[in-house]
Design goal:
The chain is α+β, with helices and mostly antiparallel strands. The protein has 6 helices and 31 strands. It is elongated, with a radius of gyration of 26 Å. Bound molecules: 2-acetamido-2-deoxy-beta-D-glucopyranose (3 copies). One 2-acetamido-2-deoxy-beta-D-glucopyranose binds next to strand 28.
């Protein structure tokens, strides 16, 4: 009886350490980025997005304003936002001169950069007239981007940027014609190390080459598709991505059918992780629509409109959720009509486990075409009575061109030289002392002249402090 308290103490400790263990394994199962900057531009208050519960810091707030280095800026607020619209799109930050947002980077490597744009307008001020350039570090992301193409709807641009140093600078540069730039919200998130591998299969007319050096390229997400399934929102994706259905890109609808599993997706160590693509992508797919009697003589094909003159990364996501047993499924993969992978055997690639995710990275140059096509079809190894093919997801990303641009045959240098100020010293991170002065001048000045625009736009006051900070900027 004496040692009973001792015993219960022991069990209590055991229980506690067990609870602690499961708590930590729960914690570690969710991805938490080292760098995670979420900015609601033009807003005094912080905004919580209901679809995924993330909190965006208003860049007019005390904390949020520290990221913005601008000679002057205007915050624009929609006084009658449409019901249900994301709070991110109620406000915008407007620039009439080049301006930077600066983020301290704690984890070197790939970062997700998302830029949200929704043109607002007031009686004297219309963001649909804006025309501007955007860069991230030295990469040109957007050139002559107009608020107009958005036609009142929000536009979301996503980039994967390799950051070597301890800073990511996003610049907004009004074009000389419009003198107006804007942004509604910004996300800068450090990506998990396994998101972008360094090697891929480069598809050429003569065959396949091994490509290395992918990690350090700048990428723009062009398509992110959940094949055979519904739209996946940031709520169901650990990197807050959106995946759209593939229906609109399918070449011949009758050739395929959508399949779904409610079973567990078996993420394997060393294979695709949940951060590469979530369960919601791997648990749906498209397979061949054949009754299994005769050898089908067709491919399933998807066609994606793209801009020519770029190299594209095509990431295909596979997970065999359709086969009843292992080693029954063999198929060929084509990209733009070229054989990209012959006799693909998921059972072998996943180490003999069904429903285990696997992805492959291909690269293809699009020179004289405005489309990128993907096909999956019969392999010579297919058993004639069980011909099939499967695809669960596709991502298509554009690589920056040799001019360091993701948007046209232009580079950042000439754009900065011809920008309204005609001087870019403020963008050069070379002289630390000067940057610091700019930071102080910028913040002080912005506080003084920030104009909040509600229904009517008040012209910006021009006073001595402007020329003052201008000259400091130039020095
Ligand atoms: C998203 O997650 C919720 C909760 O886990 C689930 O009920 C829902 O089906 C998921 N949606 C998709 C598209 O997978
Ligand atoms: C599938 O597409 C490829 C590339 O266009 C073509 O070579 C092949 O013959 C097609 N297969 C079938 C069965 O139509
Ligand atoms: C992307 O830009 C970088 C830096 O300007 C350059 O080194 C690289 O070659 C570019 N990528 C391509 C595919 O041209």
């Amino acid at each position: 009886m004496d040692n009973f308290p001792q015993k219960s103490k022991f069990f209590l400790l055991l229980l506690l350490s067990f609870l602690q263990l499961s708590f930590f394994s729960f914690l570690s199962s969710a991805f938490s980025p080292v760098d995670n900057y979420l900015i609601d531009c033009g807003s005094i208050a912080d905004a919580t997005v209901n679809v995924d519960n993330r909190k965006f810091l208003g860049d007019s707030s005390k904390l949020g304003s520290g990221f913005l280095l601008a000679m002057r800026s205007i915050s624009l607020e929609d006084q009658s936002p449409s019901l249900g619209a994301s709070p991110l799109y109620h406000t915008a930050r407007v620039f009439t001169k080049p301006a930077n947002y600066e983020f301290e980077i704690k984890q070197k490597g790939t970062h997700l950069v998302r830029l949200h744009f929704r043109p607002l307008s007031s009686s004297s001020f219309n963001l649909s007239d804006a025309r501007f350039h955007v860069s991230a570090n030295q990469i040109l992301l957007l050139s002559d981007f107009t608020g107009q193409i958005a036609a009142g709807n929000p536009v979301l641009k996503e980039y994967l940027i390799w950051v070597d140093g301890n800073k990511l600078v996003i610049s907004f540069i009004p074009s000389t014609e419009s003198s107006l730039a804007f942004v509604s919200a910004i996300e800068v998130i450090s990506a998990p190390g396994d998101l972008i591998a360094d090697t891929a299969r480069l598809i050429k007319p003569q065959g396949i080459d091994d490509y290395a050096g992918l990690t350090k390229q700048a990428l723009e997400t062009v398509y992110r598709i959940n094949v055979g399934g519904p739209k996946v929102t940031p709520f169901n994706d650990s990197l807050w991505r959106t995946w759209i259905p593939d229906d609109g890109f399918l070449h011949l609808n009758a050739a395929s059918k959508a399949v779904y599993t409610s079973g567990r997706i078996k993420y394997l160590p060393g294979g695709a992780s949940r951060e590469v693509a979530p369960d919601s992508v791997y648990n749906t797919a498209r397979v061949m629509n054949n009754p299994g009697v005769s050898m089908p003589d067709f491919n399933i094909t998807w066609i994606f409109p793209v801009t020519s003159g770029y190299r594209y990364l095509v990431r295909m996501h596979f997970c065999d959720i359709a086969s009843m047993s292992l080693n029954l499924l063999y198929f060929d993969v084509y990209i733009n009509g070229y054989l990209a992978f012959k006799d693909l055997d998921l059972s072998e690639l996943t180490g003999q486990i069904l429903a285990a995710p696997y992805y492959m990275d291909f690269m293809v140059d699009i020179a004289n075409s405005e489309a990128l096509s993907i096909s999956i079809g019969p392999s010579s190894l297919s058993n004639p009575s069980r011909v099939d093919a499967i695809l669960n997801g596709v991502e298509i990303m554009k690589l920056n061109n040799s001019m360091g641009s993701l948007d046209g045959e232009v580079s950042l240098g000439p754009i900065l030289r011809s920008s309204p100020r005609g001087n870019t010293s403020g963008f050069m991170p070379s002289v630390v002392g000067i940057s610091l002065m700019i930071a102080i001048a910028g913040v002080v000045y912005r506080r003084k002249t920030e104009v909040r625009d509600y229904l009517a736009w008040t012209p910006l006051p021009v006073d001595a402090s402007e020329s003052n900070s201008n000259s400091m900027y130039r020095s």
